[in-house]
Amino acid sequence: MTKVGALFHDVGKAANPLFFVENQPPSQIDSHDDLKPQDSAQTIIRHVTDGLKLARKHHLPRRLQDFIAEHHGTLITRYQYNRAVQAADGDKSKVDLAEFRYPGPAPRSKETALLMFADGVEARSRAERPANDDEVRILVRSVIENRQKDGQLDDAPLSQRDLAAITESFVSTLRVTYHPRLEYLKEAPATLDVPTRHRSQEKTE
After folding, report:
1. Long-range interactions of 128-135: CB distance < 8 A, separation 24+
2. Are 68 and 52 part of one and the same domain?
3. How many CB atoms lie within 10 A of CB 125?
4. Tens-place pLDDT, residues 121-148
5. Residues 111 and 81 grouped into a single domain
6. CA 69, CA 185: separation in Å to the nearest integer?
7. Distance between CA 204 and CA 199 in Å, rounded?
8. DSSP alpha helices (H): ranges in 71-152?
9. pTM of the entire structure?
């Protein structure tokens, strides 16, 4: 169920594909550069509501619609929010947090919570590129703990044992992707060693 939900969770990005970094060609100017942080955030947040519209139009089962609605829960678009705070000279009271918050709801099942973790871990690992097992584990734990502290798991039936198992599974998966590579020693150039019997033959010729 989680695997199928993952296939559909970002379908709303199809409405504005070039506003998402994974769809932007390397040479293209970022579509958000000329937008106010609030407008940039709303464009990103809209992929959830756009996804739900598509899902209902094409009669996706309600269970799959949950993955679209819940994979960001009620998190905020942190990058755009921080930009807005900077533009307000660091005065958070001048920034309306609601303009940067996903509509939710927070995950209400183990499966949608698992997708939320995967989404966050994947984004962080691409940005930070952990170099060893310790960094991978710190990254995974950080994502899960941040979601937990933010109240995103309040309605998800996950135990501490579940969270520990999820952590180990993610670490194992990321280890394959980001395992540190050994720096191989440069090999000395091969020397041509003429076999002994050939040398003896040369002496007799």
Report:
1. 129/178, 130/174, 130/178, 131/178, 131/180, 132/180, 133/171, 133/175
2. yes
3. 20
4. 999 998 898 888 899 999 999 999 999 9
5. no
6. 51
7. 9
8. 78-87, 110-128, 133-149
9. 0.81
